[in-house]
């Protein structure tokens, strides 16, 4: 049986960022994914746009600003070939949105200028999802096409499918939280679709209105490659008989059933309509479509760090259920089990920053911000268990 000091389940941008920073401290790392390669889930279906969050000051905006500054600088220094920094124009959706934009102007965190119908941010960029994840996870042992169905704590190790042992286990599985048996760990799957098109229209920068439109890449004398993303679908019915199934692997390489095809085609038309509302696109040919499920927490903040063991914590402090406050450090945690999840549609902005924060917390005892830890969700959940 193979043993590793650090095992990461999930090879999207969160998992690949995590192994990248773990490499600074250990060579005994294994990255596992049910798909055949990195970035084959939501990360591969992402537009991977990097742009500021607009709004009045709040903790989530502060987190995005810190993460964007960190990530842009990191991509520039270590992955410049995968970064396209051409600026992004943010355009209000309607008059109400325009009024909001005006109210946000005193609180802009990044340099901007008025441009066309919106605001142009020079920091706005896009990265190549697959190439970034591939390079982040370089020189790390990997196991693909491996579906983890069981994790179990045995003595001082985590046992994976009764086949692999790990001293420390990290779950970066996004919207699929089937391996986490904790009711408070509440993740919502938001399915998104990105399309790549060929068009005779040249786009000079990135745009964002109701969708994101990438700067074009010249293919030949008359054609340009443009990416458009993304849709937002939350299904209220059971989708297990479609490709919108969190248990499926390699969903963008399988044959879709009719229901899935109908949703995909409808979303293509939505994206093309929204993109044409930004810039007129002529002679369009859709050449690639990818779907994936983004992971969003109930309060939209990411979930980072150790997991609270709810059963043992309530057994030790039953009055938690009456609303009594218990210091976080006194709660019972699951041994050597960590998560990095809930990055939503800003995975390529948040993940590098959060992964670095988590690794520095583990190895150098750097404190994690309260709003990104799992304590907050446990506390809210526990008070409802009367």
TrEMBL record:
GO molecular function: oxidoreductase activity
Pfam families (alphabetical): DAO
SUPFAM superfamilies: FAD/NAD(P)-binding domain
Residues covered by the FAD dependent oxidoreductase domain: 5-359
Matches recorded under PANTHER family: GLYCINE OXIDASE, SARCOSINE DEHYDROGENASE-RELATED
Cytoplasm as UniProt keyword: no
UniProt feature coiled coil, ranges: 254-281
GO cellular component: cytoplasm
Keywords, comma-separated and alphabetical: Coiled coil, Oxidoreductase
Protein name: D-amino-acid oxidase
């Amino acid at each position: 049986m193979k043993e590793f000091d650090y095992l990461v389940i999930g090879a999207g941008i969160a998992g690949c960022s995590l192994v990248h920073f773990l490499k600074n401290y250990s060579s005994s790392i294994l990255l596992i994914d049910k798909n055949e390669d990195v970035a084959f889930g939501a990360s591969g279906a992402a537009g991977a746009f990097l742009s500021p969050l607009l709004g009045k000051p709040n903790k989530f905006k502060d987190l995005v600003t810190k993460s964007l500054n960190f990530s842009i600088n990191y991509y520039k220094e270590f992955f410049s070939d995968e970064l396209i920094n051409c600026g992004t124009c943010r355009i209000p959706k309607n008059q109400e949105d325009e009024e909001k934009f005006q109210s946000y102007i005193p609180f802009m965190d990044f340099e901007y200028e008025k441009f066309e119908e919106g605001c142009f941010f020079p920091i706005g960029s896009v990265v190549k999802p697959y190439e970034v994840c591939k390079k982040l996870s370089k020189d790390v042992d990997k196991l693909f096409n491996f579906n983890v169905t069981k994790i179990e704590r045995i003595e001082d190790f985590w046992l994976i499918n009764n086949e692999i042992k790990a001293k420390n286990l990290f779950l970066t599985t996004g919207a699929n939280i089937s391996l986490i048996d904790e009711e408070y760990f509440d993740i919502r799957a938001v399915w998104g679709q990105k399309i790549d098109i060929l068009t005779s229209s040249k786009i000079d920068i990135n745009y964002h209105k109701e969708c994101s439109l990438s700067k074009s890449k010249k293919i030949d004398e008359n054609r340009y490659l443009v990416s458009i993303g993304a849709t937002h679908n939350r299904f209220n019915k059971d989708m297990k008989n479609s490709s919108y199934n969190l248990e499926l692997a390699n969903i963008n390489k399988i044959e879709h059933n009719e229901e899935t095809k109908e949703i995909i085609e409808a979303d293509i038309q939505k994206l093309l309509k929204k993109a044409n509302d930004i810039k007129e696109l002529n002679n369009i040919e859709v050449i690639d479509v990818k779907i994936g499920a983004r992971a969003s927490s109930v309060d939209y903040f990411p979930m980072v760090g150790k997991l609270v063991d709810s059963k043992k914590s309530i057994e030790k402090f039953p009055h938690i259920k009456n609303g009594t406050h218990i210091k976080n450090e006194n709660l019972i945690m699951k041994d050597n089990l960590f998560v990095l999840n809930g990055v939503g549609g800003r995975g390529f902005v948040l993940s590098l920053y959060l992964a670095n924060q988590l690794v520095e917390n583990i190895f150098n005892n750097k404190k994690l911000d309260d709003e990104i830890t799992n304590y907050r969700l446990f506390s809210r959940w526990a008070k409802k268990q009367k």
